[in-house]
Amino acid sequence: MIFAGKTGCMKRKICAWLLKVLGWTADEPVIEDEKCIMLGVPHTSIWDFLISYLYYTSIGGRARFMVKKEFFFPPLGWLLSSMGAIPIDRSNPTTMLMSVVHAMEAPGNFHLAIAPEGTRKPVKNWKTGFHTIATHTGAPVYMGYFDWRTKHIGHGKKVELTSDARADMKRIQALYEEMHLTGKHPEKYRTH
């Protein structure tokens, strides 16, 4: 969603300035698809969220992201909502995914950012929830990245999915491995 008006323009400029001050370079413009899923890899620090938010806002986009419903108390909940957060109940993964599917199916732009690693700890098997959401909504998936070594960030290339989530995940992890990305905490990033 492209920001309009003075507030959106000012927010965009502030985010672009902060991104530059922090030494980051935005590699790509906002995704033109009305609906999409952007993966965020490697996810090794809470700073990944801030850098990703600054990036996508600075180029005129608005990404949505999932946050545990327990964080939606005033004033934090108001801030999270204004930034694009979707409150989710992690106690029931199926209900959680379907609520995101329904939100994506509503009219208007919906760019969903997801860290497939699911945690900032090193994990071998990434989560396939984004695959379920993409399959149900038909939303394309982009291989977003933030490289702490080069300080480059982008939404990456579109990846085609099949009906085999596990095989797709192995292929996506192999593609990420070929990118030679470095996380803020390199020891926490595994692609295989």
Question: What do these coordinates show?
Answer:
This protein has 192 residues and is of the alpha/beta class. It is globular. α1 (5-21) crosses α2 and α4 packs parallel to α5. It has one domain (5-186). It has helices at residues 5-21, 47-58, 76-83, 93-105, 129-137, 165-179; strands at residues 25-26, 35-39, 63-68, 85-88, 110-114, 141-142, 145-147, 152-154, 158-159. Strands 4-3-5-2-6-9 form a 6-stranded mixed sheet, sandwiched between helices. Strands 1-8-7 form a 3-stranded mixed sheet, with helices on one face.
Assign a percent range to the helix content.
25-40%
Q: What percent strand?
A: 15-25%
- Number of discrete domains: 1
Helix-strand category: alpha/beta
Give the CA-CA distance, first to last residue.
34 Å
Number of strands: 9
Whole-number mean pLDDT? 91
Rg on CA atoms, Å:
16 Å
Order of helices and strands: HEEHEHEHEHEEEEH
Shape: globular
- Low-pLDDT stretches are 1-7
In this structure, how is the largest beta sheet organized? Answer: 6 strands, mixed
Total helix count? 6
What is this structure, in a nutshell?
It is built from 6 helices and 9 strands; from the N terminus they run H-E-E-H-E-H-E-H-E-H-E-E-E-E-H. With 192 residues, it is of the alpha/beta class. It has one domain.
Could you list some keywords that capture this structure?
192 residues; alpha/beta; six-stranded mixed β-sheet; three-stranded mixed β-sheet; 6 helices; 9 strands; globular; disordered N terminus
